Amino acid sequence: MAASSYNYLHKYLDDPSYSKPSPNSTQSPLEILCRIQKDDRFHGIFAHEGADNLRPLFEKHEADVLGYWNSWHIADPTQQFKASQMAAAALLVASHKPEGKSYDFFIVHVLTTSHAVRILLPLLPAKFHVPLVRQWWLLTLAVYIAQLRPEVKLTSVTDYDRKDRDWKWVEKQAVEGKHALDAHYVKALRAMETAAQTWGDGDEFYLKAAVRFADEFDGWGGFGSEESASAH
Question: Distance between CA 36 and CA 150 in Å, rounded?
């Protein structure tokens, strides 16, 4: 898999000249996503969302993307990875419009790959930790822009009424619910529960996000001109 997936994105990590200090740095990944959402330079660059936007994004807007990539200043790797996992859950759930039936198939991979990074980090030498997280961050930015930068409304999670539904309810939806055979659905729920277990969930952000996702989910979208989950 590593050999077959080594593509044009790796040059940004292999070549240190692409990593530069940013004059607009922040330690908050959500703040950067908010900046991108409001950035007119990305307005109207794609006719529709979808994976076919990724290569043109880097071919035509490389400098803008890398500017945001470098603006995430990692001063405290542990706490900022914690923040990145919260951002991944927020991006999936808090960008979803309640009236929409389908969740974004590509944005869910921001969450599940964050979970994969969490699994890998303890197994890798420390010198690879920050580069791996930055690689995930570049993928996150690319997917977010390719999917037309949906607004992340945190209150749609923080103010969500979970109606006494807890993690046991979430787990039951994952293994017995009508979408139990959808691997991406199950992995998303598992990623959020594991993040809650890893970092704590005193404000119930992960629990509320998981309950909302499990309750509203009715398939995948975000394929753009090929809007069909059956092909995936």
Answer: 10
